[in-house]
Amino acid sequence: MAAATTVAALTMVGLAACSGEAEAACTNDVVHPDAKQVTVWAWYPAFEQVVDHFNETHDEVQVCWTNAGQGNDEYTKFSTAIEAGSGAPDVIMLEAEVLSSFAIRDALVDLTEYGVGEIEGDYTEGAWKDVSSGDAVYAVPVDGGPMGMLYRQDILDEYGIAPPTTWAEFEAAAVQLKEAGAPGVLANFPTNGRAFNQALFAQAGSAPYEYDPANPAEIGIEVDDQASKDVLAYWEGLVDEGLVSTDDAFTADYNTKLVDGTYAIYLAAAWGPGYLQGLSDTDPDAVWRAAPLPQWDLENPTQVNWGGSTFAVTEQAEDKEAAALVAQEIFGTEEAWRIGVEEAALFPLWKPMLESEYFRELEYPFFGGQKINEDVFLEAAQGYEGFTFSPFQNYAYDQLTEELFAMTEGQKEAAGALEDLQGSLEKYAQEQGFTLK
């Protein structure tokens, strides 16, 4: 395991170390103080209500929850705790894309010995693949991000544009909008889109990484494949013609443009409707609707995913069996998931809720009463087959962002940007002790 140890010590670049111990105080009330307590780090919206429901319905174990930060803020604290050998929670919320980055450091428990296999059938095939490696299962899926298209029907109607169903129609719509002198653009292509950009490549068939935590010292990298080059060349053409913008995602300016009509289309994950509705300056007169993500081939559609979170048990958990129970059961009831859906706008990967009539038939007032799950996201979720991420995914995303920015600035062409990305990732992997397949 010497090579794996070397790799494990170096794969967290991009998750900078920070000081501090795991927060001991519970944000929530513990209902049964004499019961076994399991500490949990998570940033889900409305999560305290979910925790309260779990604690009220479990006598033998209680959740002690802390919000240790969102995304990388939490990951840096976890990374510090791993290095220190203490300070990590028993259960931690992790995005599926970073599971390999922590599994390679022997920081996560393989849940198979704690009965996780008994609930595999409660999740979609793609969701389960994202948390598994061979026979090992490193987390329990919670919410996902199957992709669709949110659009301003009022804007498209004004310019006589039908919602595009293919990427060829998408380009034609962008041209039509520009030629009509519209003040905005059809959509935005963020160079810092990270998982968004990766999903676009995957839709055309890109499978950039070959990696198995069971053999952690080896990795296959192919980010300059033809599918990725074709997709990026497509977006390069839209950018060069001024048909889409290239604003950084998730900034104040981007948020404003999402809701003020600058973008007629928002290519979004299933959590996008909740994100959109949460923006305080949303135009009340805007008419939003949802439709499937445009396809390269309508006869052979490919569904992709952007984001999604899990619950993993850390190796520092004192009672791993109790921690595994929490990871498996905290979002394992209809009552918990009604909170997740109605209060937090989460998209469930738990099939009893995902396939329920309640969720399928749910009408969304923000979308004019449209049943967006039935119309768009359920099919996208069922069609998603899973994705393999690298054990240094944050670094890979940072490098991708740099290359896409260089392309949109006219410094590189699409093919050259991806070839340079291939070279930089191969070099980095070898420097960290990986052997290239």
From TrEMBL:
PANTHER family: ARABINOSE-BINDING PROTEIN-RELATED, BLR3389 PROTEIN
Signal sequence bounds: 1-24
Pfam entry (one): SBP_bac_1
Protein name from the UniProt record: Sugar ABC transporter substrate-binding protein
Keyword entries, A-Z: Signal
Highest rank taxon of the organism: Bacteria
Lineage summary: Bacteria, Bacillati, Actinomycetota, Actinomycetes, Micrococcales
TM region positions: none
